[in-house]
Amino acid sequence: MKKGWKWLSLTLLVTIFAVFMAACSQTTGGGSGSVDVGIVLPTKDEPRWVQDEQRFKEALADSDYTTEILFSQGSSAKEKENVETLLNKGIKVLIICPHDGDAAAAAVEAAKKDGVTVISYDRLITNTDAVDYYVTFDSVAVGAAQGQYLVDNVSGSDVPLYLYAGAASDNNAFLFFEGAWNVLQPKIADGTFKVANSSEAEALKDKAMLSRDEMSKILGQVTTNWDPNEAINKAQTHLTAVGADLKGDVAVLAPNDGTARSIADVFASDGDVSSYIVTGQDAEKASIQYVIDGKQSMTVFKDVRTLVTDAMGMAVSILDGDTPETTGSYNNGSVDVNAKQTDVIVVNQENVQKELIDSGYYEASEFEGL
Fold it and tell me: Which of 168, 292, 300, 328 is the most buried (most CB within 10 A)?
């Protein structure tokens, strides 16, 4: 009899725990059970994606459709597992920002086999025909804005130029670099800039249009893999390797805010670097403080509110049986993917108040020295 009561108690505990876990689900929107829209983001370890998660939750607060947000934590295997989890919950639309554009192909192909519409979010999934739509900022325009800022804020000739890039596994890293190269290359060729940290870029300085393979060679020398620690190591290595003639007043193409802050700290600590201009993107809070303090020169503001609104608007259109609005297309190596593009804004000390505080994106109380 005692054994029977123990078994019954254990069963009750398991049942209570299961109910508790169900209550703690990340699913949002109306109702419970199956999920209409599955969202997969690359990692919780970068402020950018935590910020996107929050914006999605805000956008979905009053939604009639159910959603679930999962993170892949920088693992393509976990990403595929997340997609499978969402497929098992009956999603009809998948919004996914891939950790690795090529590796994500297998995950979205499984989604397509289940009749799910796939929206590639912010980063393009490559070399598969299983992507239906792409919601993105104009990544080439981001790189062009970074490059133009450097051009507009240097003077003289032979200005040492340090190039850095994102991860070679991320198609956006190539688009950012392409945009920057389009602007910087003529100024490298005419002697305004002298590339300080990439022999591959120096060898290609007279070539306006680079092939993917040529960009890959440059990225192989200057990639940060979007990792601030790797950016520190790269910057320290590069500054150690060059002489005083490649220091002084320098220009630095940093791909995003996390790497920009790391690189800026390294350059600021070198006694032979008298001044530096450094780019960034994402308008992370920490980098906005750096911009205010004069430690980072600019950031490219990509209003995630707009990107999230575009992605969810597209998903709702699909669920309602309508055709989503698009503004262009991107070739992913297999097909031309219809895309909705969102504009970007350059933010520096002069307009940080207007673009980020007055617009309601951040609160003034979150910063010092405004």
Answer: 300
Kindly tell me if the per-residue pLDDT of 14 is higher than 50.
no
Whether the Cβ atoms of residue 235 and residue 160 lie closer than 8 Å to each other = no
Is the pTM of the predicted complex or chain greater than 0.85? no
CA dihedral 361, 313, 61, 258 (to 10 degrees): -40
Number of other CB atoms surrounding residue 203 within 10 Å: 13
Quote the CATH superfamily of domain 139-302+347-366.
Answer: Response regulator (3.40.50.2300)
Checking DSSP bridges between strand 37-41 and strand 67-71, what pairing results, if any? parallel
273 and 267 Cβ atoms separated by less than 8 Å: yes
Give the Cα separation of 321 and 333 in Å (integer): 28
Q: Give the right CATH number for 2-131+304-342 from 3.90.190.20, 3.40.50.2300, 3.40.50.720, 3.30.990.10.
A: 3.40.50.2300
pLDDT at 4: 52
Q: What is the dihedral of CA 178, 181, 186, 192, to 10 degrees?
A: 170
Residues recorded for the chain: 370
pLDDT tens for each residue of 106-136: 999 999 999 999 999 999 999 999 999 999 9
Q: What is the pLDDT of residue 256?
A: 97
Listed in sequence order, the residues at least 6 apart from 201 whose beta carbon sits closer than 8 Å to its beta carbon are 163, 188, 195, 218, 221, 222
- What's the burial of 342, exposed, middle or buried (CB within 10 Å: 0-12/13-18/19+)? buried
Terminal-residue alpha carbon distance, the chain? 72
- The mean pLDDT of 314-335, rounded to a whole number, is 95
